[in-house]
Amino acid sequence: MYDALIADLTGSKGTIRSLINQELPLLRDHLLRLDAESRRDRFNGYADEGFIDRYASKCGGDGTIIIAYFAEDGAVHAAAELHQPDLSTDSLPEIAFSVEAHLRRKGIGSILFRQLMEVARSLGYENLRITTGSQNQAMRALANKFGAHLTFRQGESTGTIDLNQEMPRTNQPTIEIPAGAASALIDFNQACWNLFLRMSGINRAA
Fold it and tell me: How do strand 76-83 and strand 94-99 relate by DSSP bridges?
């Protein structure tokens, strides 16, 4: 998907598609390749190898959907993540992005952003939350491009994106959610509802 456009933008072959659970080590390797500043921007703080190991593993079981840029050698060099909302009343699905230095300002982030929004729409979401470090100018610019309204607080930039807004259409199909991610999403949502029912006492025996 987007292969011809990617070749034009980057001068090399690559593809953008969803990442399945068995490929989570590729996400881990990508995050570890980020330079210190990029890693700090991505996680809004210090993130060592152990943290990234745990983070990548967690993404495999909590319903996170990942769309990634795969280079010709099969390595992941950019990723967009859609994290499911929690049970709080004002919770929104949250998105996050990471692009390695050699691919920045080549349009890869915009492609990932657009595809992640389409996937979120297909899941019935109406709004997304994005949080990044206040010093992350590239991410702030990308978020603004897609209509995010950012506010600044305690070193963070936080904003929401209205998925009902009209966005320019492309001729590219929306990326399909892999079966593994869809199953994890269903399991995650079911676990959330079970927790809600237990907390509210709805499923208690009379």
Answer: antiparallel
Strand 127-133 relative to strand 94-99: parallel, antiparallel, unpaired? parallel
Give the separation between CA 87 and CA 95, rounded to whole angstroms.
17
Class level of CATH domain 3-196: alpha beta
* 20-24, 40-44, 123-127: range with lowest mean pLDDT: 40-44
- Rounded distance between C-alpha atoms, residue 191 and residue 176, angstroms: 24
- DSSP assignment of 104-162 equals TTTTHHHHHHHHHHHHHHHTT--EEEEEEETT-HHHHHHHHHTT-EEEEETTEEEEEEE
- Per-residue pLDDT reduced to its tens digit, 90-142: 789 999 999 999 888 888 888 899 999 999 999 899 999 988 777 777 777 77
C-alpha to C-alpha distance for 181 and 63, rounded to whole angstroms: 6
